[in-house]
Amino acid sequence: MKGISPLIASVILIALTLAIAGVLATWATQFVGRTQSGITQRTECIGALQFTMPPSYAGGTMTLSYINTKTVELDNMTAIYTFSNGQVNQTVLGTLGPSPATGFKVVSGLSTRPINLKITATNCEGMFLADTAIA
What we know:
The chain is α+β, with helices and mostly antiparallel strands. The protein has 1 helix and 7 strands, in the order H-E-E-E-E-E-E-E. Strand 3 and strand 4 form a beta hairpin. The model has no long low-confidence stretch (mean pLDDT 86).
């Protein structure tokens, strides 16, 4: 029985190796691009939301006044209030355009003073735009 020549076998092995390397290089380029895009987005979110006045609570009402200091739009922001009894409430703040967009929100009907306020945005996934104790 005859097999394939060593020269043809070597050419086939080299071609197969190059094809696998090409597939892996394409995947790695796309993976790094997606990862870099996510990191860039989160970096733009750092420090984007600043309070123009500290959040205040009086008589069951929480008042928030804030500004976007960056060029990224803050999509679907949500305020998350934590109370001393462990209860958590959420309030939708909406979308805030790029700098110098400002926002103002009055949340009424709170039975007690929250002890903490966190603000998130859907495009700043995995991080809080604000995380502050309520005085």
